[in-house]
Amino acid sequence: MRFAKANRIFFARSITHRTFRFYLNPLLKPYLRIIKKSFLNHIAQTSPTPPMYEFVRGDGIYLFDKQNNAFVDLISGIAVNNLGHNNKKVIYAIKKQLDKYSHQMVYGEYVIGPQIKLAKRLSKLLPDTLDTFYFLNSGSEAVEGALKLAKKYTGRSKLVAMKNAYHGSTSGSLSLMSDEYYSAPFKPLLPNIHFAEFNDISSLDIIDKQTAAVFIEPIQAEKGYIPATNQFLQALRDKCSETGTLLVFDEIQTGIGRTGKLYAFEHYNVVPDILLSAKALGGGMPIGVFISSKEIMKSLSDNPILGHITTFGGHPVSCAAGNAALKFLTTSSLMDKVAEKETLFRELLVHPKIKGISGVGLMLAVQLDSFDEVECTMKRCIERGVIIDWFLYNTDCLRIAPPLIITKKQIREVCATILEALDADKE
Ligand SMILES: Cc1ncc(COP(=O)(O)O)c(C=O)c1O
Question: Which residues of 132-154 are buried (b: 16+ CB within 10 A; e: fewer)?
Answer without folding.
Answer: bbbbbbbbbbbbbbbbbbbbbbb
